[in-house]
Amino acid sequence: MSKERFKTLVIAILIVAIVSMSVVYALLSQTLNINTSAKVVKSNSWNVFFDSTSISEPTLVGYAEVEEGKELQISGTTTLQNLEVTLKAPGDSVTYTFEVKNTGAIDAKISTVELPNLANATYQSANNVTSDINLVKQYLRYSLTYASDEAETSYRGKALATDDTLSKNSSRKLKLTISYDSSATDIPSEAVTVSGLNARVNYVQY
Description:
This protein is α+β, with helices and mostly antiparallel strands. 22% of the residues lie in helices and 33% in strands. The chain starts with a helix and ends with a strand.
């Protein structure tokens, strides 16, 4: 083989090698770009909350009243607050319904239910008559239950309790009632307004 033909062959081989290496590098770069730009999707997410948009208007029974702006509100995820009611006679009550939802990917259960200490609530009346305030304080009742039309029949009317479950992508309808015990025989001379009735339900992974 002549020197000229040998040189030509060597040059051709080098060109083919360089082109091949360029193609391989381009493919590797593309693969790396795809891998590094991929987003990590979190498969397990936690999202349990009281749905503020589901809070009903208060249902009032007897002489019960709720001042505008003092309706039930939700703080954070599962805290009930800003609730104020005015009661005057046995059987008076204020009731709200709302939903607790689990839109996350983890099943949940109740760890604790923190209802208000009614003795520490704030009681006021027009003339702040001590005997009237003491009557309402004595006969005030506070209940947080599952609604009577809750889809899960086994929970209907049941008080929220530790270890109650809430599966992922599900919800339950709850009912909050503040009332003057209907069995009471003592009636205050004037209506009493009660506030400081915050409550919280804590959920954990199930």
